[in-house]
Amino acid sequence: MSATSRYWHICRISLKSQRAGYEYSLVPIAEEFCHQKVPNSQAREMQAFLFSYFHGFNSAKADVATCAEAGFCLRCYVSEPILKACQKIDSLFSGDKSFTYKDLLPFVLNDDGKTPIILDSDRKTQLLLDANGEAKTSTFKFFTVEVLRTYNADGSSMSLDNWAYLQTKQNSEVKDFLSEFGFQNLSDWALMNRARPKQIERLSVRDRHLVEVFHAVYRRDRCHHRQVGAKRCPDPNSDQLQEMLKSLQERGVIINTPAELTKELKHVATQLRQYDIWSYREPLEIQDPDTGNYTTRADLPNDSQDELDVEQREIIEFLHEQLKSSLVESIKQQISVRLSELQKSRKYAPLANQFIPGLQLYYCQQMPLKEVGLKLGMSSWDQTRRILNPGELLSKVRTRTLQQVIEKILSEAHAKGLTEIPPKIEYLKTVVEQIEAFADAEIFQEAAEEIRAGKNRSMDSLYAQELRQNINHQKSA
After folding, report:
1. How far apart are CA 106 and CA 94, in angstroms?
2. CA 20 to 30 Å from 106, out of 20, 175, 312, 396?
3. Torsions phi, psi of 405, nearest 5?
4. Closest among 170, 148, 160 to 88, alpha carbons compared
5. pLDDT tens-digit profile of 248-290?
6. Own/partner pairs for 426-434, CB < 8 Å, 24+ apart?
């Protein structure tokens, strides 16, 4: 299928093609719209044009029927990466796992390609156009439209393909389905309780301390108090958390409250959960409800992987490792660079020593910029923003992190014979897009949303946690 014809062919579940489970169907409305109104240009420009119409509801630019027609084109386009994401999930769990990508399709490939759908003026709700052109709230949500609804067509660094791919992997119904096969059904505390040495090795030094202290307290109590029929892994109680805090303090890890400790433990659990899903060499395990012991799932393959699979998996693991280490290094570097810039500035040099305390108030105490300025004696909110500028700091950390990860990935790919140096432009473009999408989904999208959140923000992102560690390290140095 050509690149442009993707805008008028929709991928749908097929009962006829039982072997494949899907088929591409022509959507005449989309084809006519593309031929008559869409300029033949680069993909980004075509998509920008289509989104300008699709988002045109309640504007003078397009009537509701035209909005729906543009939507048909975009719905066709994203149906293909949705299919590919399901196939990718299937390949991640290759072997006798009791399901295939065809089992995932009903959750996400549910667009009939016939029902006209638009969005409300806030772009939060799917609206169905009836035969009279009247818009009514749709009781059924097409996943293709949800992908389009949540995509930032004006400012996203991700391609629409990558956004559709990521949204499919994060679809709640897909996750629930996978949990039935043991891929994500353990609670945070069960994941922490059964963390294995190979998983712990991949964590930062601080996170390893958290796991070790958790094991020392929580595992001990689980062994002493396990009862038949009791909740497998209940939340750690206040006494356990206090004991963990004390043990961490003895190790030089300072966490102030049980609530903060709980947040950090849950973040470690998130990393372990990702290891289960995306690190392929470790077989997933299930817990025996009677003994509490973990054994390898009988329905997952234990035979050795072929050489190509192993190389691909090593690349994925390598990407996780490099993203984390590059983030830490980039935060350290950009804080140092910003501090140096302030010290050399004729206007802001007298306030340079407030930069680190300001970040501490903003990221550790979740204090708004206005209150940070008052606390540090700055003249105005604007002056505080110019000195701290958390958005600019995040942007520079992201840029530097991506540069480092891309360089390391290309070097690793070259060492494995997957590309040449310098790489061909198309290969480089693909790598950059995929790494950007991965890094944004893992780190930077959440970090940016925290900054935009306003007063009642909660700084729980990986970026915020690593930045806090850097600040605390500088204060204790």
Report:
1. 20
2. 312
3. -65, -45
4. 170
5. 999 999 999 999 999 999 888 877 766 554 443 333 344 444 4
6. 431/406, 432/402, 432/406, 433/158, 433/159, 433/162, 434/162
